[in-house]
Structures are given as C-alpha cells and as structure tokens.
Design a protein that fits this description.
Layout lengths: L1 H9 L4 H15 L22 E5 L1 H20 L4 E8 L5 E4 L6 E2 L5 H9 L8 H12 L3 H11 L3 H8 L16 E2 L1 H13 L6 H11 L19 E11 L5 E12 L2 E12 L2 H18 L6 E5 L7
Helix pairs in contact: 3-10, 4-6, 4-9, 5-6
Length: about 325
C-alpha cells in the first residue's frame, strides 16, 4: 500500500497542463508590466448633525424648585441659629432665596469689599501704591489693620456709597467699627451684580480689580459659598466671621461671592448668626451652598424637539 501511494504522487503532470502555468511564470519574470491593484481609500460618510430645537420646560423647572427649596428648608431646620440666603444665576436668570431681605445680620469682614469699592469710587483716580497694597492685604488676607486704615478714608461717606449703589438694606458700622456693618443677602447679590455687570459709576478696571482680589483670597479663607463650585469652576468670594460676646457668646458667619463655569454665572450669599461656633457656621453655609450648586441646572431644564423638515407657511 505504501508503494502505491508514493507512486500516485510521483506521476508527472501532463504537458498540456504545465505549459500554461510555465508561460505565466516566464512572463512575470521577463519584465512584462501589469497593473497592480491595491487598496483604494474610501472617504468616510459625512455625518450630518441632527437639527434639534430646545424649549424651556416650565413644569419640570417648577417641580425641581419645589424639591430644592424643600430640601434646603429641611437642612436649615436641623441647623442651629438663623440662616438666610439669596442666589442668582446670571446665565439663566434663576433666583432663589430664604429671608433674603433680612438686614440685621452683621457682615464682619464681608464689609471689606464695600470699603474697597467705595475707595475706588472717590473720583480721585487710581489707587496709589500704598492704597493698593492695603487693598490687597485687606481682601486676600482679610487684614483688619489695612481695613482700619482704608475705612478711615471712606467711612464717613459709606452711607452715601450704599445709597448710590442702591444697597438700601445695608447700614455701615458705627464710628470706626466697619465690622458692625449690617446687610442682607439680597444686597450682597446686588453688589456682586454691579461688580460683574457694571453700573452706578463702577468702571471696568475697578470692577476687575475687586473681583481679581476676591478670587485670590488665601486658602484658609476660601471656605463658604465656594462649596457650590463644580470641578473647574472659578470662584471669587469674601467671608466674614466674628464672635458676639454680647449675644450669648454666639458667632456671626457670612459668605458671598461669584461662581463661574460652563453655562453658569452664579452669585450666592449665605448669612448666619446665633451660631454656637465658627465651625458650625461654616458647615451650615457650605451645606446650603452645596445643595444649590449641585442642583442649580435642574432649575432651568429644557425639552429637545427635532427641527421641522419643511418650513411652515
């Protein structure tokens, strides 16, 4: 059986079959040119963006507002002391508030922004080098000595400043006590809006200076409304904190500022007093700010619809 198998594979192929194959091999080796067929680049199909239209969803927005305000009230109801706040998103126009017109809470170091803004509105031109150095220390470090010096230059005209700015719910501290300035969350929002949008005689360079310093407060003072920021948002703020020995040894803690990011330009102010301590006040402010910051987008929802295929006459 083995011999027969070997024989079967040893039989030469018939000549007529081998000749055409040999001819092809010889032709290929003799320089005959043949067109080489290779892969052809094919353009990917063009993706046409689907046309959609977005419309406000007022019912969903109203429901989201009710849920958020309920949750904030529930949180605040479990926290000590008095807590008031106001919020305004300049992109969507959404606003929120609770006790936002209560104006008997002292702002403590929060008044330092007012001092700088009043100083810039004196009409005497740019700050001199000494004033600029004091302003930087007053805002970024919350330096009280710097505030004392600048308050002495504008303190007597602070009532006129507040009247000019339309801050009807803010009253300057008595005498040399700028820290006794009282204000409302609504007035803090009005002041921040003027710093962002301009008006009332505030020039663009002056507004940029104030907001820039508020964005550079030292790290240990960057607590407060900054808790409303998402990753990558920019924050400019000023906080105030002071013990109140004549008010049952409680504290007043306040924070206000601006949080800017994609689709958002949030102005936020949270004020507290009758706090058992500084940490308690800070925790409360950040709890309110976090609730607002994480759910702000739900207050301006939209409905998506495809664009009409043909124009309507």
């Amino acid at each position: 059986m083995r011999a027969k198998w070997m024989a079967a594979w040893s039989v030469p192929a018939p000549v007529p079959v081998l000749l055409p194959v040999l001819a092809l091999v010889l032709a290929a080796g003799c320089g005959t040119e043949r067109e080489v067929i290779g892969p052809v680049a094919v353009k990917a199909p063009i993706k046409v963006a689907r046309c959609v239209m977005r419309f406000p969803a007022p019912r969903a927005a109203a429901a989201a507002r009710v849920r958020l305000e309920r949750d904030i009230s529930g949180y605040v109801g479990k926290r000590p002391g008095r807590i008031v706040y106001a919020a305004l998103d300049l992109v969507t126009g959404v606003s929120l508030g609770r006790g936002e017109h209560e104006h008997d809470i002292i702002t403590a170091s929060g008044a330092k922004v007012d001092i700088l803004a009043a100083l810039l509105l004196r009409g005497t031109g740019e700050l001199d080098d000494g004033e600029r150095d004091l302003a930087i220390r007053m805002i970024t470090e919350s330096d009280n000595s710097a505030a004392d010096t600048l308050w002495s230059r504008v303190g007597s005209s602070m009532s006129e400043f507040y009247d000019r700015m339309g801050l009807r719910e803010t009253t300057p501290g008595p005498g040399i006590y700028w820290g006794g300035t009282t204000t409302s969350p609504a007035d803090r929002i009005r002041l921040m809006k003027l710093l962002v949008k301009g008006g009332k005689g505030m020039t663009a360079p002056d507004r940029r200076l104030v907001l820039d310093l508020m964005s550079r407060v030292q790290k240990d003072q960057s607590w407060g409304v900054s808790a409303a920021a998402r990753r990558g948002d920019r924050v400019a703020l000023k906080n105030g904190w002071t013990p109140r020995p004549f008010a049952s040894n409680t504290w007043a803690i306040t924070s206000y500022g601006r949080i800017v990011g994609p689709g958002r330009d949030l102005l936020l102010s949270v004020q507290t007093d009758e706090q058992p301590g500084e940490e308690a006040g800070i925790e409360t402010i950040e709890g309110v700010a976090r609730l607002i910051g994480t759910r702000l987008d739900t207050l301006s929802p939209t409905i998506t619809r495809p664009c009409p295929t043909r124009p309507t006459i």
